[in-house]
Amino acid sequence: MSKCLYHAWTREEEKKLLQLAESNGHKWKELQRNYFPYLSSYSIKNKYRQIKSLQSCPSIQSQNSSSRLKQELNLTAESTYETAEPISENISGVQSQCQQQSDQLTVQLQIIAEQLRIIQLL
């Protein structure tokens, strides 16, 4: 079977990938062969890394972080109220870290662009 060039991952597939990688390890070829035969092992590995990256930097997720947490954990209204303040503080801290990383990358890109400009002048 040929591997598809593009695959729109479903929520269920993402959860399955995370569970399988945690329980079976990062054996991408084995996961591909046994669970995702329509994808390449490279695609599976990249998707796993993308998910983990998004989990560590929730400010770049497409959904609102607090509503996504509520959906994933199936929190009731009472428990959401009790945990809202600590979650909000945590999200603010993570967003701050992401912004710092973004600023550092911007500076690095500016340096690289300047170096390329100098090289082109030579």
From TrEMBL:
CDD domains: SANT (cd00167). Residues 9-52 form the Myb-like domain. Residues 1-56 form the HTH myb-type domain. Pfam families: Myb_DNA-binding (PF00249). InterPro entries: Homeodomain-like_sf (IPR009057), Myb_dom (IPR017930), SANT/Myb (IPR001005). This is SANT/Myb domain. The lineage of its organism: Eukaryota, Metamonada, Diplomonadida, Hexamitidae, Hexamitinae.
